[in-house]
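Hey all, quick one. A colleague (J.T.) asked me to put the DP6 job into the tracker so the inputs and the structure tokens live in one place instead of scattered across chat threads. No bug as far as I know, just bookkeeping. Sequence used:
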Amino acid sequence: MYQEIDWEDGPKDKDEVTVRTPVNIAVIKYWGKRDEKLNLPLHSSLSVTLSMSDMYTETKARRSRDTVFCINGKIEPPTKRFDRLIKKIRSENPAANVDITTHNTFPTAAGLASSASGYAALACALKLLYPTRGVVSELARLGSGSACRSTAGGFVLWEKGEEEGGGDSVARQLFSAEHWPEIRVLVCVVCREEKAVPSTAGMQSTVVTSNLMQHRVAHVQVRIQQITEAIQQRDFPTFGEITMRDSNEMHAVCLDTYPPIAYLNDTSHQIIRSVHSFNSDKGTVRAAYTFDAGPNAVLLCEERDFVELRERIRGEFCGKKGKVTELVECKIGCGPLVLTD
Ligand code: DP6
């Protein structure tokens, strides 16, 4: 049986664990670091955790004499990012070694970043095997910034923090999934290829060359307060508008990077127009889009509008010559799970 991990519940020095961790989608995007090695961001970000009905990372880890890493069925050398996690664990447990088997269950490459759920899973597994100081999201962040938000369920805030060592740059749940269970998510897969500019490199270049980025950093905190209030009040029109504006701004900042980075393609822009036309038919914001570092759209709405929105997208973009190759439906879900017996 899988159970949500309760970090408050005593020491965790197990010999073997299996964990499942969710994907998260930022509604206020993380883009830009103040520290590249520790993945410390220039500003805070906020995400929703997706339900694990068909998308999650499953990682099995056990204490062993050597560290072995098997990803999606293939033995791989541990990544540099993984080395950061294990180094942190070894600072308190010098003999720590793990045998890790990990795989993603994303339906036919749903076009979603796997690094967030992947590093969240490694962090959870390591921390269950080897108790260490600090919270699990701090460990996950060392692997990939957005991974720290996959260590909690519902609506999650990653506070940028002030400390040089990053001890206060951690993610925490603002509201559980049960707070607003009517939220629905539709992932529209436009392209399954690797992104042309990986987010780490894209961010680096933006921070160095974009003037617009300074404007973003200066006002993103206000947006976080506004969207938190909208979530608190389950006010979809405000939540949706802020989500769309923030995605648009992140992609504007990417275009302001020199040389410019364009993650969206024609289909992404058509989906944006389609969502705005859906909203103008309704007379208010009833659906929202957000895009990460690629052309795939993630749409959000409430349950009452879900079927209509999905069918509109299906009619306009799927089918024989359709530009959207797959639609994945999810809800908001809980945080990491651990296998108990
Ligand atoms: C556009 O977390 O993949 O998805 O910290 O370098 O591993 P690193 O970057 P990563 O960046 C995610 C960027 C984003 C926005 C977001 O998820 O907030």
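Adding what we noticed when we looked at it: Helices lie at 80-90, 115-129, 136-143, 199-209, 212-232, 236-256, 266-282, 303-317. The pocket of DP6 is lined by residues 26, 29-31, 39, 45, 113, 115, 144-146, 199-200, 292-293 (CB under 6 Å).
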